[in-house]
Specification:
This protein is α+β, with helices and mostly antiparallel strands. The protein has 9 helices and 14 strands. The strands form 3 sheets. A 7-stranded mixed β-sheet has the order 3-4-5-9-8-7-6, with helices on both faces. A 5-stranded antiparallel β-sheet has the order 13-12-11-10-14. The protein starts with a helix and ends in a 5-residue tail after the last strand. The model has no long low-confidence stretch (mean pLDDT about 90).
């Protein structure tokens, strides 16, 4: 009910919404409306109440709140359940627990902070409280396991599109799934799955976004940034979450239907940061690289399966994500 009331208040903008309209719209009593309005106020929502006019939303808190995020999603969106927590060890871990107990596809798990956030290859992900977005989406795709990596690429593409639309900045992707601004990383994505040989039980896609982070530790400040640092404006995290999830769910449904990325290759390649530029391909850890376990070539874009096509000595080589890193010749991008 709270998300429905918030959606109605937002749809009316600066205008008032009468209590009678809310009662009629949702089939509830005036007392039920008042009770939910009171609960929203207690959670930090500034709602003006005027006799004979109704209610008007004046301001929303910065804290992430499940009904708020749901209120910003279209009613037919795949994501119909959001769970917000103050602290989790890992949103991926929590989402996997929910999946094992039958959690529905489209469940979104969000934490204000993580104590054991996961990055690629087991690295820790710094999850500063109150400024970033740390979330995981639970999916149950009808796909063969070999196709699941496409979900990760689509997550990056959806976030890139959301950032460009909302903030007018040129977000790009460093293949396969790092979203970057000004050649620095703002987002990491980690997809994990439970599967059998030819069947996927569930997939959890964890997304960490440096939204309003103001500074970074010395060891990563050369390669990491935030949307706030690049725009100079504090962003509405709930707005970004809802926009990105809405776009992703639309992509995801088409991807599962078509079973490959054909419909997205052109869009993805258009935001690929190092397309038509020379890159280094490292087979294994970048820190332990040697001439024997790396290639240099020109990145030409992805194919329908999400592999990066790199032109090496005049021939295209398919680079598949996994234990491979692709970097620019002179740096991270």
């Amino acid at each position: 009910m709270k998300e429905k009331i918030l959606r109605a208040l937002r749809e009316h903008g600066d205008g008032f919404v009468s209590g009678a309209f809310l009662c009629s719209q949702f089939g509830v009593s005036r007392q039920a409306v008042w009770k939910n309005i009171t609960a929203l106020k207690e959670n930090g929502y500034e709602i003006e109440s005027v006799t004979n006019k109704g209610y008007r939303l004046l301001n929303s808190p910065s804290r992430l709140y499940a009904p708020d995020i749901l209120s910003r999603l279209p009613e037919g969106c795949l994501c119909q359940k959001v769970e917000c927590f103050d602290t989790l060890d890992s949103t991926n871990t929590k989402a996997k627990q929910l999946a094992e107990f039958g959690g529905p596809e489209g469940t979104l798990v969000i934490a204000e902070t993580q104590t054991a956030g996961k990055g690629r290859r087991g690295r820790n992900w710094n999850s500063e409280p109150g400024v970033g977005i740390w979330m995981t989406l639970l999916l149950r795709p009808e796909l063969p396991p070999v196709k699941v990596s496409g979900i990760t690429l689509l997550s990056a593409l959806a976030l890139t599109k959301a950032i460009r639309e909302l903030y007018g900045v040129q977000a790009e992707i460093k293949w396969p799934n790092d979203v970057i601004l000004a050649k620095k990383k703002i987002c990491g994505i980690l997809t994990e799955m439970s599967s059998e040989e030819n069947y996927v039980h569930y997939v959890v896609t964890g997304i960490g976004i440096n939204a309003n982070t103001a500074s970074f530790p010395k060891e990563i400040e050369e390669t990491a940034t935030s949307i706030f640092l690049q725009t100079g404006k504090k962003i509405d995290r709930s707005e970004l979450i809802a926009d990105m999830i809405h776009i992703f769910c639309s992509y995801y449904e088409q991807f599962v239907k078509e079973q490959d990325l054909s419909a997205f290759v052109e869009e993805y390649n258009a935001v690929l940061a190092n397309r038509d530029q020379e890159v280094c391909v490292y087979y294994g850890m970048v820190e332990q690289s040697s001439p024997e376990n790396m290639d240099r070539g020109i990145a030409r874009g992805i194919d329908r399966d999400g592999a990066l096509l790199v032109e090496i000595d005049g021939r295209l080589k398919r680079i598949v994500s996994g234990e491979v890193s692709v970097r620019g010749v002179y740096g991270y991008v």
